[in-house]
Amino acid sequence: MTSIINIGDISSSENESLCPSLTFKQRLYGAGGCLVLGFIFSILSWVSVFLQDYVFFGVLFTIGNLISISGSLFLCGPVKQIKNMFNEGRWIASAVYIVTMILTILAAVLLKNGIAVIFCCLIQYVAMWWYFLSYIPFARDCVKNAISGALSK
């Protein structure tokens, strides 16, 4: 099967279009900073669960995920990141991830429905990990085999 988007067509200028003057070390700091900040938002979101404020949880959790994934923009640039997200092996996980982020915010802000927020966050979390696993060779196959092995017992 062919890739939806040909990643090989990306030029190096597009690759560094987010912050072209940054060194590789500075890009790593930017990516790491986004990852840490996103993690802090995610941890803070769980505090709101204990306070039973599921609306605030959904918003903080989603913002944390957006900040975390935006760190990759420092490493490969926005054009390449978007093309990577929607290539053949990742487009379903990426689409589910993006849609559930939107649904989480809508469930939190418009519906103010805690159960819907938690459900969307769970799906968002699974989609995020499935997306991340796509970058590790054979990781998805290992997870599938582990789940099917656990379910067959």
TrEMBL record:
GO terms for cellular component: cytoplasm; endomembrane system; membrane. It is a multi-pass membrane protein. The chain crosses the membrane at residues 28-48, 54-79, 91-109, 115-133. GO terms for biological process: protein transport; vesicle-mediated transport. It is found in: Membrane. Keywords: Membrane, Protein transport, Transmembrane, Transmembrane helix, Transport. The keyword Cell division does not apply. Pfam families: Got1. It comes from the Eukaryota. May be involved in fusion of retrograde transport vesicles derived from an endocytic compartment with the Golgi complex. Belongs to the SFT2 family. PANTHER family: VESICLE TRANSPORT PROTEIN, VESICLE TRANSPORT PROTEIN-RELATED. This is Vesicle transport protein.
